[in-house]
Design brief:
- It is a single chain.
- The chain is of the alpha/beta class and 383 residues long.
- It has two domains: 180 residues, 3-Layer(aba) Sandwich (Rossmann fold), CATH 3.40.50; 173 residues, Rossmann fold.
- It has a seven-stranded parallel sheet with strand order 3-2-1-4-5-6-7, sandwiched between helices. The protein has a six-stranded parallel sheet with strand order 10-9-8-11-12-13, sandwiched between helices.
- β6, α6 and β7 form a beta-alpha-beta unit.
- The chain is globular and about 60 Å long.
Length: 383
């Protein structure tokens, strides 16, 4: 198990007051919500004062979560307009903005904008509905340029940093800071008995190898491609189970495809509790599977690595480090037959070394303490 790097010294001599503006916040959200929450909790432990503004608070409530869920870009534009008109940035040393969408000018002089994903990428990948992402990509470009007038940017993957530059943000204003993971909460099973105990809850045969896919079942994740490939892999390796955890607009049609193909070793769990169920799903799995055609810096992948799972991922730029760091394999899922053959060959190998490397890489490079130190350096520069 790799060591956790905890920053011991920070050059800023005084504690800061930081305003955090985010459209979702733990426990009422997933990706962005968890990133903001984990960094904020670390900053608080260091003595900094953090004031969080989101549709659910906890400190300042603006906008409407249900409106964002229902109308997406419309709800986001309303939230950020309220942020611009209701909050005074002069009351804070730094303002931290997550995927800001200011229609009017950025009102905050000392601000840093973290971009977790872009509509631009979704439009480039022609994710459905394409007309929607064409519109939102154009709005995003306008809003990010407004934000850039008084902010520096961080992107959670090198690809996102490139996207920001393509959109029109000055490269000198863009910094790469990856997402992180709670390496204490997400750990490998202590022994095989713990793994088998969890598997019994889901009626998984003890001799099966288990692939886990966790996240929204949507077009961007290519769930039908995942099933097509799994069908071919299982034909060669029958003792294989696939767990699909998460809700989404394509869940029912994906279930229907599994039934049509008689994939009786695919387990659909639907939405699951993040704090209690998700960690045990990683513990009962042997591999993490990600067939996406669009990703930023997916927290589920980092959690899987921290849990000691080798990963099988798409050949997207933000995911290539899995192969480069020997923590799994990178697969071209555009060719389903070739992808299946690659995975079959991989599963027939002994991959325990890659499991250890995944855990070590997460602990050494992606623990939230390490990531918080990188953000704090940028906050101090602005303050």
């Amino acid at each position: 198990m790799g060591s956790i790097q905890v920053p011991l010294f920070y050059p800023f001599s005084e504690n800061m007051k930081i305003l955090v503006c985010v459209s979702e916040y733990y426990p009422f959200g997933t990706g962005i919500a968890n990133v903001a929450y984990n960094i904020v909790e670390d900053l608080k432990r260091m003595g900094h004062e953090c004031v969080v503004c989101s549709p659910t608070g906890p400190d300042i409530k603006l906008g409407s979560g249900p409106l964002i869920d229902r109308w997406a870009i419309g709800g986001l534009l309303q939230f950020w307009d309220l942020v611009a008109t209701c909050l005074n940035g002069d009351d804070y040393d730094v303002v931290w903005l997550h995927n800001p969408m200011f229609i009017r000018a950025n009102p905050f002089r000392h601000s840093i904008a973290t971009v977790h994903s872009t509509y631009y990428d979704k439009y480039q990948q022609r994710i459905a509905p394409v007309p929607y992402y064409a519109l939102t990509a154009a709005l995003e470009k306008y809003c990010l340029k407004k934000t850039a007038e008084r902010a520096v940017f961080t992107g959670v993957s090198p690809m996102l940093c490139n996207d920001l530059e393509t959109i029109g943000i000055d490269r000198e204003k863009i910094i790469f800071i990856p997402n992180g993971v709670n390496t204490v909460a997400f750990v490998p099973p202590s022994n095989d008995d713990e793994k088998q105990t969890i598997r019994k809850k889901y009626a998984i045969p003890p001799t099966h190898r288990v692939l886990l896919s966790l996240g929204r079942v949507s077009d961007a994740k290519r769930p039908q491609t995942m099933l097509e490939v799994f069908d071919q892999v299982r034909a060669a390796i029958p003792d294989l189970t696939l767990i699909v955890a998460g809700g989404g607009e394509m869940l029912e049609e994906t279930k229907a495809l599994a039934a049509e193909k008689h994939l009786d070793t695919v387990i659909f769990l639907g939405p699951v509790d993040y704090d209690t169920v998700v960690p045990e799903l990683y513990k009962c799995a042997d591999y993490y599977l990600m067939t996406s055609r669009s990703e930023g810096s997916p927290l589920t992948l980092l959690e899987a690595m921290s849990s000691g799972l080798p990963s099988i991922v798409s050949n997207l730029p933000p995911l290539l480090f899995i192969g480069e760091e020997d923590c799994g394999i990178v697969v071209d899922f555009n060719d389903e037959q070739k992808a299946a053959a690659t995975i079959i060959g991989y599963l027939r190998q002994e991959n325990s070394v890659q499991a250890e490397k995944a855990r070590t890489y997460a602990a050494d490079h992606l623990d939230w303490h390490v990531i918080t130190a990188q953000y704090l350096e940028q906050f101090e520069r602005l303050a």
